[in-house]
Amino acid sequence: APVSPPAQHLFSDPAEIQALRRNLLAWYDKCKRDLPWRTLAATEPDADRRAYAVWVSEIMLQQTQVATVIDYYNRWMQKWPTLQALAQASLEEVNELWAGLGYYSRGKRLQEAAKKVVSELAGRMPRTAEDLQKLLPGVGRYTAGAIASISYGQATGIVDGNVIRVLCRLRCIGADSSSSAVTDCLWDMANAVVDRSRPGDFNQALMELGATVCVPKAPLCGECPVRKQCRARHRKLLGQPTPVPDVEDCGVGDCPLCPPAAEPWDSSLGVTNFPRKAAKKQPRSARTATCVLERRGCHGAPEYLIVQRPRSGLLAGLWEFPSLPVAQSLQEEKEREVLADHLQAWMGQPVAAEGLQLIGEVVHIFSHIHQTYVVYSLPLDGDVTWDSASSPSRWVTEEEFHASAVSTAMKKVL
């Protein structure tokens, strides 16, 4: 049977929890960063509009740094200030604004959920974390908790990467932070410590602490408002625990929250011993032959043919230069031939393989794919017809290309 987490890893003392809440909120009120979604959420009197503002920010912030998100967020809220406005937008418009932010399915799911709120929920956002997660596509447990606590005042905790790091250090949780035992424990802990009167501010304070003070490397422990509650820091100050179990060493065999025996405490790392993460899976390698077809436009400026990707899968609905996945081991001569055949099939006119000029290679790292684009160029004298049944296409100038919903990878290709 699974071993229950020992009390040493949990927050069980009401006085300690109150001190944690008080110190963290006082620090947040004084030191929080001025971010546009916080300002909007704090000044917007309508709860649903607050929820929409928080929702957009949380979706954008997934896997993306704050500094990158700010400009995108401001442009988004200026273009679609309400959920109803977003529901009326086209996917093409959403992709154009999202271009360069990465993880493009996020924008698509956000718009799908907005349409569902308008068409099926009478324009009203669900008010609890449970309903938000159940009813809105693309809204997971964390996002639902953030919206519900910040916008509607529900006393529910949240767990994201920053919160994981803070809680693991506070309680010396050293097992793999992605394991079900640790995940369940962290959610229970977050729900137990969240401040009942200011849940949204408390949750944001936890995330802010992880983002600015309790950072992955070289944390600013001397500036931490909850350092007295931090058992990782206490352990660092005491050094390696003695064989006699104490508060820093739970002493329970097979503890699901302690570091594995094969990975003992490293005194040189201090609090950064926590959290422990599973070995990161290496991205798979992929190779794609890409052809930039170019012609002279009516005003003499070069124009490029772009085609739209399928509506599902990687980079769904975005525009790109005609491309074809190829085997890693394919030789250049054969690669030219298969790319020429691909172009000929969709253009309906002969394409000579020797007419394709090899320009070079572009490497782009997606979260799970190490992608290499082998870039070819093909100048054309006149117009060509692309088979619209396979994918829509259009000719664009360089300026129009950058204004289109194209990925960062395709901008590198150009």
From TrEMBL:
Cited SMART domains: ENDO3c (SM00478), FES (SM00525)
EC number(s) stated in the UniProt entry for this protein: 3.2.2.31
Name of the top EC class for this enzyme: hydrolase
GO cellular component, one term: nucleus
Catalysed reaction, written as an equation: Hydrolyzes free adenine bases from 7,8-dihydro-8-oxoguanine:adenine mismatched double-stranded DNA, leaving an apurinic site
Pfam families: HHH, HhH-GPD, NUDIX_4
Keyword line: 4Fe-4S, DNA damage, DNA repair, Glycosidase, Hydrolase, Iron, Iron-sulfur, Metal-binding, Mitochondrion, Nucleus
Gene3D superfamilies hit by this protein: Helix-hairpin-Helix base-excision DNA repair enzymes (C-terminal), Hypothetical protein, domain 2, Nucleoside Triphosphate Pyrophosphohydrolase
Sequence ranges assigned to domain HhH-GPD in this UniProt record: 60-212
Domain of life: Eukaryota
Principal subcellular localisation of the protein: mitochondrion
Subcellular location(s) of the protein: Mitochondrion; Nucleus
Cofactor details (free text): Binds 1 [4Fe-4S] cluster.
InterPro entries xref list: DNA_glycosylase, Endonuclease-III-like_CS2, Endonuclease3_FeS-loop_motif, HhH-GPD_domain, HhH_base_excis_C, HhH_motif, MIG/MutY, MutY_C
Cofactor(s) listed: [4Fe-4S] cluster
GO molecular function: 4 iron, 4 sulfur cluster binding; 8-oxo-7,8-dihydroguanine DNA N-glycosylase activity; adenine/guanine mispair binding; metal ion binding; oxidized purine DNA binding; purine-specific mismatch base pair DNA N-glycosylase activity
Gene Ontology biological process: base-excision repair; mismatch repair
Protein family per UniProt: Belongs to the Nth/MutY family.
Role of this protein: Involved in oxidative DNA damage repair. Initiates repair of A*oxoG to C*G by removing the inappropriately paired adenine base from the DNA backbone. Possesses both adenine and 2-OH-A DNA glycosylase activities.
Protein name, as recorded: Adenine DNA glycosylase
Organism phylogeny: Eukaryota, Metazoa, Chordata, Craniata, Vertebrata
Gene of this entry: Mutyh
